[in-house]
Amino acid sequence: MNNPFDMVLFGGVGDLALRKLIPALYRAYLEGGLAGDSRILPVCRREEDVENYLDRAREALKTHLRDGEYSESVWESFSKLLRAVSLDISKPDEKWDQLGDILGADEQRVRLFYLAIPPAVFGPCCENLSLKGLIHSQSRVVVEKPLGYNAQTSAEINDKIGEFFPENQIFRIDHYLGKETVQNLLALRFSNVLFEHLWDASVIDHIQISISETVGLEGRAGFYDETGALRDMVQNHLLQLLCLIAMESPNSMSARNIRAEKIKVLEALRPLVGDGVDENIVRGQYVAGGLGSQLVPGYLEELDAASSSTETFVAIRAHIDNWRWAGVPFYLRTGKRMEKRCAEIVIQYKNVSHRVYGEGAGKVVPNRLVIRLQPEESIKLVLMAKKMDSLEMELQPVELNLSLSETYDSFKSDAYKRLMLDAAANNSALFIHREEVATAWAWVDPIIDHWRETGSQPHLYRAGSWGPEAADELLEEDGRHWFNAQ
Ligand code: BG6
């Protein structure tokens, strides 16, 4: 169990707080990971939000927790940790002093300032925390994407926060890094001699990293239309996954060592500029279509706009120019309103160099390692074996299947829970250093510049499909195809 800490949750009635953070804290409490004398101080602007905070938090828990997690008795005791306060983030008035009084003078007690607010107010918020003397050596600030809109705005945000908090007290979240299977990916790579020796261009044909979503805009139309899939998902989640797959073994699992290896991968990503953008990237935007039994509107209808060139889908062929990965394409793909919700990494091995069985034994399917992060968490290895009960020598693909969600009954992973407790315990291994953010933007920016300069328009795809045909063609050009989740 963590030592008790105080969490000041700016943006206390926001979507992130009610949908993800409060449920994650409840889970931490339920599982004994949150000391009973910890305090959670959601910050709301309006007095009335403070008055009915407990009702809203309780409703949010009932809606967003999984079946069986909510109980009145746990809520009774958990709710005692919650104490909403009202203040205006941009005005350094006496309300901040009241917050200071609640926090008290104990300099050894950990304080987390969670900024679940728009980046435009990160600056004033940190400035007022500093002005009111609320930052001490055990204070940490937790921030989340969008950390800027491009390299420049991101640097401005990081500089601003950096005026008040040293880098080792800044915890930048990418919630994908808190997912259980993502951490398992590192365990798989660096604790098994088997894989570490079969992890390079000599045996791997290519790698696919796909995050497909079935949701559309979810009430975030304004934000999303300004952002698009490349900034929303690739600059952060997909590039982070790519780093974990491609990086060299760190000397240890310390934050410093892991970050150093991730940055090397980002620096080795071959830049996509000019025509290279059109040749290697497909953008898409969904139109109305059938998703399961439901007919869902297209992007423009959801947005309520006549036109928009924002991409809701992107497929990329990327290369990492280093010794280990020379010649191995990394295909990245993500999209909204796709056929299935799934996040999956496929490591496609090369085929055997010589076929010892004749044609009659059937095709030899190359080995494939499939790491699924969601909706269920599993690791699967596709191997060739003899077809049982057959007198003839017949080969067939079989699966070595490690289904984590089935194996562990009480498998209750929650990325935010994990990351908040890590921040409280000062463990920054799963957080992102500002240099990583900057290097990722440096790769993404020229792509967006090119789209803007050329007036690029997205290919249309039907909601409920696997994206535009052009994305299939991108792989077909290389004699490959996407492995769509079953
Ligand atoms: C967020 C994006 O970072 O990740 C959302 O802003 C996206 O657009 C979400 O829906 C996906 O997260 P998860 O954990 O549901 O795959």
From TrEMBL:
What pathway does the UniProt record associate with this protein? Carbohydrate degradation; pentose phosphate pathway; D-ribulose 5-phosphate from D-glucose 6-phosphate (oxidative stage): step 1/3
Q: Which InterPro entries does the UniProt entry name for this protein?
A: G6P_DH, G6P_DH_AS, G6P_DH_C, G6P_DH_NAD-bd, NAD(P)-bd_dom_sf
Q: What does this protein do?
A: Catalyzes the oxidation of glucose 6-phosphate to 6-phosphogluconolactone.
Q: Which gene encodes it?
A: zwf
Indicate yes or no for the key word NADP.
yes
- Parts forming coiled coils: none
Statement: the UniProt record of this protein carries the keyword Cell wall biogenesis/degradation? no
Q: Which PANTHER family match?
A: GLUCOSE-6-PHOSPHATE 1-DEHYDROGENASE, GLUCOSE-6-PHOSPHATE 1-DEHYDROGENASE G6PD
User: Quick one: which residues bind NADP(+)?
Assistant: 45, 88-89, 145
Q: The Glucose-6-phosphate dehydrogenase C-terminal domain covers which part of the protein?
A: 186-482
Identify the species of origin: Microbulbifer yueqingensis
Positions contributing to substrate binding: 175, 179, 213, 232, 336
Residue span(s) of domain Glucose-6-phosphate dehydrogenase NAD-binding: 8-184
The biological processes this protein is annotated with in GO are: glucose metabolic process; pentose-phosphate shunt, oxidative branch
| UniProt-recorded name of the protein | Glucose-6-phosphate 1-dehydrogenase
Keywords of this entry: Carbohydrate metabolism, Glucose metabolism, NADP, Oxidoreductase
Q: What is its EC number?
A: 1.1.1.49
GO CC term (a single one)? cytosol
Describe the family membership recorded for this protein in Swiss-Prot or TrEMBL.
Answer: Belongs to the glucose-6-phosphate dehydrogenase family.
Report the enzyme's class at the first EC level: oxidoreductase
Q: Which residues form the active site?
A: 237 (proton acceptor)
> Which Pfam families would you find in this protein's record?
G6PD_C, G6PD_N
Reaction(s) catalyzed by this protein?
D-glucose 6-phosphate + NADP(+) = 6-phospho-D-glucono-1,5-lactone + NADPH + H(+)
